[in-house]
Amino acid sequence: MTNANLSRSLEDVREAHRLLFAYYRRILDTVRLIGDQFSDHTFYHWSSVVTDPPPMRGTKPFDKWAWDFLPLTSVSFLYADPTAKIRNMQVGDWMLEVHVSSDSEFSHAKKFKTEPDPQAFAPAQASQSEIALVAWKCIANMPKDQTWLKVWTQGYWPDDESVQSRTAFNATDGIHSFQLKRPIEEFGSRSDVIAFAEAAKSEFNSVLGVR
Questions:
Q1: Which letter, b or e, does each residue of 41-58 get, where b requires 16 or more Cβ atoms within 10 Å of its Cβ?
Q2: pTM of the model
Q3: Helix, strand, or coil here: 107?
Q4: Between 44 and which of 78, 82, 95, 208 could a Cys-Cys bridge form, CB atoms 3.0 to 4.6 Å apart?
Q5: How far from 119 is each of 105, 106, 115, 124, 176, CA to CA, in Å?
Q6: What CA–CA distance (Å, rounded) separates 107 from 183?
Q7: Could you tell me which residues come within 8 angstroms of residue 61 by beta carbon, excluding any fewer than 6 positions away?
Q8: At what angle do helices 3-37 and 190-208 cross, to 10 degrees?
Q9: Looking at the chain, which runs of residues are DSSP E strands?
């Protein structure tokens, strides 16, 4: 690679970093705005979905996936009712999940045992970026050692059939779930985000009976 080509490549990297920052900032602000619309729930936990979280500073990073350093590519934010229990939950208690999938091709990478190579992904134009709001509701009293985090880790997202038929999905023992999702490009303004949250509230109430 010539010095001129290297300089152009580094310019591309710098521009990509700035675009990525702007995107991540927009995602964080969007998720915070969604959470604000569910005033009876507060932030509880967040986690990367496809990858491990970024390693701690004392952990050697060189054998980690590079994807681990892009945790917002596929990530979930959990919100729980602070007046209810986050363990040993009771019938009627529910948790809100805000799931961000920045690249549907990467979301599918969960099936791979080794670090997925983005060069093998379909073109970006064929991929989708979405935000899903998922309600997880207790339909049975939970045992003392059960927590919302365990429910989220062990449970399953609603399948397409349950979403299309607007019926509750049996996520795991004693837990029903339902979700509403939208392409990220539909959120052009604050009012778009708020309207999405309000639509999810209506759907959650209709399907799961939660408010």
A1: beebbebbbbbeeeeeee
A2: 0.92
A3: helix
A4: 78
A5: 11, 11, 12, 11, 38
A6: 14
A7: 55, 68, 69
A8: 50
A9: 42-48, 74-80, 94-101, 130-138, 169-172, 175-183
- pLDDT (0 to 100) of residue 110: 60
**pLDDT (average), residues 10-30:** 92
Nearest to 32 by CA among 46, 21, 19: 46
Token couple for 28: 């964080």
pLDDT digits (tens, 9 = 90+) for 88-108: 899 999 999 999 999 988 876
For residues 197 and 151, is the Cβ–Cβ distance under 8 A? no
Specify the residue for token string 């050692």: 145
Q: Give the C-alpha distances (Å, rounded to integers) separating 191 from 101, 158, 196.
A: 21, 26, 9
DSSP string of 38-70?
-TT-EEEEEEESSSPPPPPTTS--TTS-GGGG-
Reading the block at residue 2, the tokens are 């010539």
Q: Which residues contact 41 (CB under 8 A, 6 or more apart)?
A: 35, 79, 80, 81, 82, 95, 96
The residues, ordered by sequence, that sit 6+ positions from 92 with a Cβ below 8 Å of its Cβ are 137, 138, 210
- Given a contact cutoff of 8 angstroms between Cβ atoms, the answer to whether 133 and 91 are in contact is no
CA 131 to chain centre: 7
Inter-residue contact 49 to 76 (CB < 8 Å)? yes
